[in-house]
Design a protein that fits this description.
The complex is a heterodimer. Chain A is α+β, with helices and mostly antiparallel strands. Chain A has two domains: about 230 residues, 3-Layer(aba) Sandwich (Rossmann fold); about 110 residues, OB fold (Dihydrolipoamide Acetyltransferase, E2P) (Beta Barrel), CATH 2.40.50. Chain A is about 25% helix and about 35% strand. In chain A, the strands form four sheets. Chain A has a six-stranded mixed β-sheet with strand order 6-7-8-3-9-10, with helices on both faces. In chain A, strands 13-12-11-14-20 form a five-stranded antiparallel β-sheet. In chain A, helix 2 packs across helix 3. In chain B, about 75% of the residues lie in helices and about 0% in strands. Chain B is an all-alpha fold. The N terminus of chain B is likely disordered. The radius of gyration of chain B is 28 Å and the shape is flat. The chains are: A alpha+beta, B mainly alpha. At the A-B interface, strand 6 and helix 2 of A face helix 9 and helix 10 of B.
Amino acid sequence: MASIDISNIRKSYGIHPVLHGIDLEIKDGEFVVLVGPSGCGKSTLLRMIAGLEAVTDGEIRIAGKRVNDLAPKDRDIAMVFQSYALYPHMSVAKNMSYSLRLRKTAKEKIASVVASAAGKLGLDPLMERRPKALSGGQRQRVAMGRAIVREPKAFLFDEPLSNLDARLREQMRAEIKKLHQDLGATSIYVTHDQIEAMTLADRIVAMHGGIIQQVGSPLELYDNPANLFVAGFIGSPGMNFFEGRYMASGETANFALTGGMALPLGGTANLADGSRATLGIRPEHVALGAEGLDVLKATVDLVEPTGFGIIVHLKLGPVAFKAFTLDRRFLGMHGEVNVRLPVGNLHFFDEAGRKV
Amino acid sequence: MDSLAARSGSRRDQRPLKKRLADASAPYLYSAPALILIVTVMLVPLVLGISYAFRDIQLLNPFSGGFIGLDHFKTLSQDQNFYRALKNTLWWTGWSVLLQFIFGLILALLLDKPFYGRAIVQALVFLPWAVPSFLAGLNWAWLFNPVVGPIPHWLFALGLMSEPSNILSDPHLSMWGPIIANVWWGIPFFAITLLAALQAIPRDLYEAASIDGAGPVQRFLSITLPFLAPTIAITVLLRTVWISNFADLIIVMTNGGPADRSQIVASYIFTQAFKRLDFGYASAIALVLLVLLITYSMLIVILRQWLLSKD
């Protein structure tokens, strides 16, 4: 177990920069998830920590020791790949013990460590099989087994669940979380799936365009996104955005939507009068069927039942947005509906996309 | 009764005879062109060639051509030149395949790494394969010739030779001339096939192994070699059969000489057939070579099956 410190890491391929100065401190035993869309640099960052990519500039420290110029094998980390990267000509047992055999660990020690890892992961009956005779989930377990037998300083996961079907992904997600609770090992996990990020992480690092957008606990990112990117990326269905102009008038203010309608805000926000801004609200905070003076009339476009709840697609003039409700009365809804956007749940973003 | 049976029989099939014949022969007629072509092109020459081995066929003797049974094989069993050629064939094939494979593998490994100008280097490296074997043989014969070629002078300057002489005319070294030419000529075959196999190995296996603690040598042994093994097996098998039959370079460079010292079975067949014009004897030798190569191939196939079943 160890802490990992990343300071001002940059990476360029030729003249193309992909990481623009990343600073991140990962505490001992922490589970950190790097999340972002394809091409945001999250996998590159992970591979640099693993030593599979050269560092263009900056410094990586594992347990306080600078590792920039160390070979992957000397960094004492383990990695689980998206493709599992199991050695196809070796049995499960051989796959798991490969790193220990390379380190000339005593045979009895290898046998006991591999057996205990196999027990933890439920691989006991499969030890003599080749990877090609295993299902996707079993291969994934072998890949994790290969990582844990070494008791490394840190685990790196590179989209380990992307090749599994939805059901299995959910199950393996829980297993990874449980494994982390048992082992307490420092883990860095890369994914583009915000649900995985939310469910697994102690801290989420949201990345976009080679820059860290926000670092925080899952609920911090959900409840208090630092900018438009994080607000839109975290959460499913995603946050609704309304573009418009902030109009202050004394104690209260209005939000003039692009397209003509005005939302009474009932309070003020930290924005200059008349400035362009984006208003955001999560679908579950949109109150359907509300009564009162501050309700808006929206048109129902589409109703999507998910079983658990209902996603209602609405239109406010030309602007489309979504509401999420658990109330089944709204299943057969059509025509006009009263909607309230509660002031306490509104997020404002300035013209540059920053939360205000 | 008889007439009744005949009548009921004719009721079963009332088509006219011609139509019935045409229907029955249709599949054979359709496949006939291909079958006739295969038989004339492949089987007739093969059977004819094998039959020569049991006949006395000498081009300069108009009275030859009679069936002589196993006489050729009896002569062959006491032919010292044949045994030497057999030994030379092993030597020639073994060293050629081994060196071609080793250098081809090294070349493939070098070309597998990306570097600036790799496409051009790849094209250049594969060039020898495009050179006609007779041209390659002539070229190397001249390179080894101290009158026009530089190699003997270089070897002399390095102190490896007491005087700049032609190794092709040295009874103890003459075999090495064609072997070196053959290695030069055949490396690209191994390089191409092994490079293709190398590029099919998933990169993340190497990454996983390097994180697991494997150095370059261990990665090569535990990932590259197991992945290349099937390709190595099939290419080595192919090249072995190919090279042991490959007399071009020897005919061009040494003509089997000096004093039959660099004769392999294939070139010995050529010499018997086209120099001594004894087609019968040449066919008998060819038949022995055929049997040996088939045995070798069967052994390899069995070995491969055994290895696969072990998995």
